[in-house]
Amino acid sequence: MSEGKPSQPTLPINALDRSSQREFENWFAYPVRVQPHHTDYGGVVWHGSYIAWMEEARNECLRSIGINYGDLAAMGCDLPVVELSVRYHLPLQLGMAAVVKTRMADVTGVRINWDYAIASSDGEQLYVTAKATLVALDRERGNIMRQLPPSVKDALARVSTLHNN
Amino acid sequence: MSEGKPSQPTLPINALDRSSQREFENWFAYPVRVQPHHTDYGGVVWHGSYIAWMEEARNECLRSIGINYGDLAAMGCDLPVVELSVRYHLPLQLGMAAVVKTRMADVTGVRINWDYAIASSDGEQLYVTAKATLVALDRERGNIMRQLPPSVKDALARVSTLHNN
Amino acid sequence: MSEGKPSQPTLPINALDRSSQREFENWFAYPVRVQPHHTDYGGVVWHGSYIAWMEEARNECLRSIGINYGDLAAMGCDLPVVELSVRYHLPLQLGMAAVVKTRMADVTGVRINWDYAIASSDGEQLYVTAKATLVALDRERGNIMRQLPPSVKDALARVSTLHNN
Amino acid sequence: MSEGKPSQPTLPINALDRSSQREFENWFAYPVRVQPHHTDYGGVVWHGSYIAWMEEARNECLRSIGINYGDLAAMGCDLPVVELSVRYHLPLQLGMAAVVKTRMADVTGVRINWDYAIASSDGEQLYVTAKATLVALDRERGNIMRQLPPSVKDALARVSTLHNN
Asked: Which CATH number fits domain B18-163: 1.10.1040.10, 2.60.40.1840, 3.10.129.10, 3.30.450.20?
């Protein structure tokens, strides 16, 4: 993708309409900046780099409600991603700033579903939308926890209420 | 995820039945080995590392039919990923070997669809399945190519026939 | 490296004495947090991840004095790393916060030398020290710029004065 | 760095003379190919990507003499990098093939020293030279092993003899 020109397929939803902007308004916001190591030969963010940003946004969202991912891991509870889907709408170029918006969408059985939207700082451009499903894993036993640790469950309930209204 | 133990949720399809093994049989095979830099604190492959492996497998599949990704980029034709979905069935641990199986599934309009299955070398275990959609992009103009360069189109038709039968 | 325990060789200089702390005091500070994708199977930051952090710190230091790395690249001027040396004193673990301290040390001929110290937020622990040498590269011609663009030169002179006193 | 042109500073030693070629001849050879995820906006390999290649080469060298890095870690013995120095002579571009040559240079006290040279497949071009120092770490106790496990020690002695003559 050439520098200084629009350079990736302009899929229908890259320009945000008012309703979409409102949709993300209450989500947790994690600011990012495109560094050289995020880019590929095209001068834009390599498509796998967004996965790292989404992980960071999710963990910082959890931290903002009192869940420290490192503490969770030390307690033997892990939250691996078991499903991921990503749509790349518009590329981010070297040096650009953006915001990873995220929220915990819902919990269905053992599946904890998160939504992501990577947008420009002014909310006018949408670069990436994504969904990730996590499960809580008991590291010692190697199996899925049917019940989350109560402190985690309560915190997740709070974050869900916060971002989905 | 604890070392030396099975450590990620055993989703239904991690053990391959005979029919699935046959399904991947003719796909392009790209062998990989889990190195420390692929892993995370859980002792297993970090979920984003698979994205790099799938890209490598796709490009080596293209190379095997005479398409050099670097040459394509130098010609001004890019093949960015516009959509990606991944299911993580079973984790790969440090030092393990695996095979990334891939094929070009089909072309629908401007969308070039690829399938992936990351399996054990003996084909008995399935770790990851995924789909990626690419489009051909004219780097100069910054828009989608409605028609692929003829040499690329012919090569893709050949690889599709090869792996889908 | 086992979780929850000190886990890498305790080389002589991991505990900062007063004089070292003073040394880094005026350097540019870039805060980081250890995310899962930074770690490896040992539960600590993979040794290559620090390279990305140091690049980020250097570019944010440049941005703080008005040099945007993306603009520089768009102007055809690149600042590739031509030499790098890193000493790993103590490992950073999942979830930990730290600060990447950096400064432009000096310019010797075409070589632009940067220093790094990755330390705990309170300045008590030293994790990594490093040096990187960059050169200014004319992308069009593919050779080293003997003279930096005046705006860059002036900004670098300012940052050098700022952090070395 | 512009595509299709030489694009990084031509430092003195990028063209290998006969004596240097002979020097690397007996070292372990690990072939690599530049994939999009290795590159940055300059169209060349990002300087941190080489760290991953060197780790892979070192581990595959160990595997070739019967040391499986995963097994070693499972036994509680880790080999973290404590020092690293890299010189970037010439950049590798998207799609190019190269060979990471490596050898265990020597053991001085607890320090295990490795050498690296990343060169073109025909041995005519030298891209990167590097040195890494590792120590053996007892993961349980979190301290340096003064004595390597005998099987590892013997294997390392063999590899040293092999590549240094």
From this structure: 3.10.129.10
